[in-house]
Amino acid sequence: MSSQDIPEENLPAEQDHAHGAVVVADEENPFADPGLPPHEHRIQDIDERAARRSERMVALLFTISMLATVGFIVSYVTIPHDKNIFVFPIGHVSALNFALGLTLGVALFCIGAGAVHWARTLMSDVEVADDRHAIAAAPEVRAKVHADFRQGAKESALGRRKLIRNTMFGALALVPLSGVMLLRDLGPLPGTSLRHTLWAKGKRLVNMNTNQPLRPEDIAVGSLTFAKPDGLEETDEEFQNELGKAALMIVRLQPDNIKDKRELDWSHEGVVAFSKICTHVGCPISLYEQQTHHVLCPCHQSTFDLSDGARVIFGPAGHALPQLRIGVDSEGYLQALGDFEEPVGPAFWERG
Predict the structure, then answer these.
(1) Most buried of 88, 145, 298, 323 (most Cβ within 10 A)?
(2) pTM above 0.70, yes or no
């Protein structure tokens, strides 16, 4: 149904009689004003039933937003922070983070969608042109504002009462510390936990994809393999936190291609193990160039040379990737010979 099918007396009154008017170019205004296109009424403007449907849709979206907000609060209170769930196709994720993100996203989306639907279907859509006005205030208004400010400063005696002035500035400077102290309750202090991972002497290297312990012959020259410590399972409460520190990437190089002496000493038959966590902002590194032995962080393009101690050759990363010293156990499986000798990931206040 269009506005042409509705009797003229049923159409809403026009709010702008000059809508669509055109100004012709002349000598003073060489560029013609194209005006606004003729206004076309929406179905909601001419059919109250359609307007009611739009109203109910907006109310439904706002109601869903309210329910999602309640779900956010309930999730925050009831779901343990260390519980993991499997979500296809994402995989194992924190149940609390997933619930909070989902409910908050739905709440915000429905508010926005409801507001947009309300504006597009029920609010007035008549375009109104208005002339611009001067931005600057009139000279007499500016003079009065300046005079009032000077009078107020004089009456406050802030310049003469230095004790009041100084103590006020001190109070204003210190009161934000109250909010800073509240940050202490956001979680326990990390202590030295960022310095240590699950790697220890005798801990086997387990393939992340097959969940099987690795042998040197499982790793071909030029290949890239990701590993985790033996015993770390996706169902563990601290799986994400521990994997974020202990994730390894394993590469096999020709021993003659290894330039760094310590890297060669800490390898086994050319098999080297480095932290997978970028030393810039902690992104997982996964791009390997076989010919140059370079690995690239996909987040900010930090590049490391795995044949030269994983030193930084490009990008914002501040230091090389930590290397894990490895060997083989009595059954021929690759094992760690200790933990990393420096914290993995980005620099932090305990480094050094």
Answers:
(1) 323
(2) no
